[in-house]
Amino acid sequence: MSAANVSVLRTLPFAQLRQNRYFYVYYDGFYALVGLAAIAAMLSLGHKGLYGPTAVFGTFKLWHLLFFPLLTYVLVLCHVFVHVCTHNSLPRPYNRIIGEICGLFVVVRFASWEVVHQRHHRFSDDVENDPHPCLPSYFKHLALTVVNVEKKLQQTYFELYGDTPETRKYERKRAYMSYLTNAIVITMFYLFAGPTAFFVFLLPASLLAACHLVHFNWSTHNAASPIADYKPVNLNHGYFRWGNKLFFGIYMHANHHKWPTKLNPSQVKNPLPIQPAPTKDDQVALAKLKREWEKRATPA
What we know:
The chain contains eleven helices and two strands, in the order H-H-H-H-H-H-H-H-E-H-H-E-H.
């Protein structure tokens, strides 16, 4: 392996973007070629997916749905480990290798995940700059996240290389290329899984894992605050306790923001306080806050 390849494996994507303004052309181009090559190979070999008379798992049966929770859990873990790898929490160069593998499985790929997440840490809960600032409503927060990620990815590029007509034109083309690469990757997984496995297992599990990711970001920034006091908090009550056990302490988010390279934030020494479960009065006040916010957010 050449020194250049070793350097890439030891470097995170945002650092590469700062060094090379055309980083994404090479990055998305690489995944587009990999996806097209895999698609061509499956078509030429007559691959029919995971279900079918001659396929790996034969004919689909209802009891196969018992594996759906396991697949969802694995995809949630892929997001967890992409998150871990964005902070170099594993020994190098495993962060880049595992981050790229898990990023491919969750489609968005490691570079966009890492660049956007580094921005989140720099501008946490800043309404103008955080890619996913907290809102009272989870579903509004989900919609904002979907729309905002691409916007803040472009804003990051403008901050690095200037907000000019030329950079805006370049970023529009880069965005189209990223969307096309996403489509190629999804097509690759569709052909590999086949219609049954894709629509019954892979697609819904992927969407659930993505919704869990957004819920994790939302809840751990004090979304239950009745006064909109949004900030990273440690959660360990109710189902958050199980989430910490299953997903390497991800809900101990105040610890994570203070010690971002720690693999399991629940295991830091001298941790920050744990946010108590909301009281009934808190829940009533939060419901009122949501109603008021919905009125302000709805055009007259």
